[in-house]
Amino acid sequence: MSVAILCGGGPAPGINTVVASITKSFVRNGMKVIGLHHGYTGLFRENARIEELDFLKADSIFNRGGSYLKMSRFKPTDDDFAKNFNLALFKEHNIELLVTIGGDDTASTANRVAKFLREKGYPIANIHVPKTIDNDLPLPNHSPTFGYTTAEDAGAKIASTIYEDARTSENWFVIAAMGRSAGHLAFGVGSACHLPMIVIPEMFNKTEITIERIVNLVISAMIKRKIMGVNYGVAIISEGVFHALSDDEIKKSGINFTYDDHGHPELGKISKAQLFNDLLNIKYKKIGLNIKSRPIELGYEVRCVSPVGYDLVYCTLLGNGVYKLFKEGASGCMVYVNNAGDAAPLFLNDLEDADGKIPPRLVDIESQKSRSVVQNILQYITEKDYESARAYVPDPENYDFNKILEWF
What we know:
Layout: E1 2-7, H1 15-27, E2 32-36, E3 50-53, H2 55-61, H3 78-83, H4 87-93, E4 95-102, H5 104-119, E5 125-130, H6 148-169, E6 172-177, H7 184-192, E7 197-199, H8 211-227, E8 233-238, H9 239-243, H10 247-251, H11 272-287, E9 293-298, H12 300-303, H13 309-327, E10 333-337, E11 343-347, H14 368-376, H15 386-389, H16 401-405
Parallel strand pairs: 1-2, 1-4, 4-5, 5-10, 6-8, 6-9, 7-8
Antiparallel strand pairs: 2-3, 10-11
Helix pairs in contact: 1-2, 1-13, 6-7, 8-11
């Protein structure tokens, strides 16, 4: 009897810890562990790249960054299931459990695989381990997704260095942080480093996200710092604000894009930091603001770092939890570990919305934590700054933080 493990999507710190902990738990209890390289690709080709994982391999990778099992974003179609499914792989290795490590897409595909195998008369259990540095899966009790804590820590180290450069050179830097649906990473890094401006999608809870509003928020911090006699700073912007822009907003930005077959701009092909910085430079020239800023991307740099102590422990408990749930007969679920370290099944149908999708967990911008950062760490123009701000812009009310966001 054996268990198969695959990793889907992009890397996050702690994947190897999860894989190693699963391997050690199952091997010590007499089961064989098969590692599948290249995500779901291996389940839909005859020459799947697999290898047996033993204690020594597990022990050599458990504290490493990256993923020993090569990853893939491959998502099988109905045609793949009908024509290319490698059923022989499951029979040859007597696989009774498929463990998937990834986001909600990876989990949904795991359910399709399990259903397909049941229809073929080969029932298996499937247990999912949720991972993302975006921290946007709706786990109970504000539990982080694994990898987020390490990514936030690594991101804070990078942003702190950038802040020191800004202070040394008296320039501004614009950081674009990963997070398509939610601004957790940008908000966490920005809070840790006391950055004077953080821009995330959740801040636009009372108004539409537009390029002008994004740019004016950053300009607001720049003018406020000038009033304070501070000629440097760092703004961090979640890439999610860009992905939330309408196509019309993107087209009128003046930035040249390539477009897909449906006429939508191909956002994944451009640097968000460069884009934001270009838009700011256009505004500097328009209003005559004497500021230099430079773009910095933050995302790929934090996905494969070695996990910090928190994620080493957390991912170990998640891996051990997979074995616990399997022995208890659980299937079609995600493993969840609470703050006390207890592992339990979390079933996808308890998280899905009416359309069968898992809604992202957003930053609670109304929470005391968020308000504390916005009110005490961020720096921006308010009504009391108008007179001083006129030394730099004739219309300071257009850079009033609360007016931009319509927070009244």
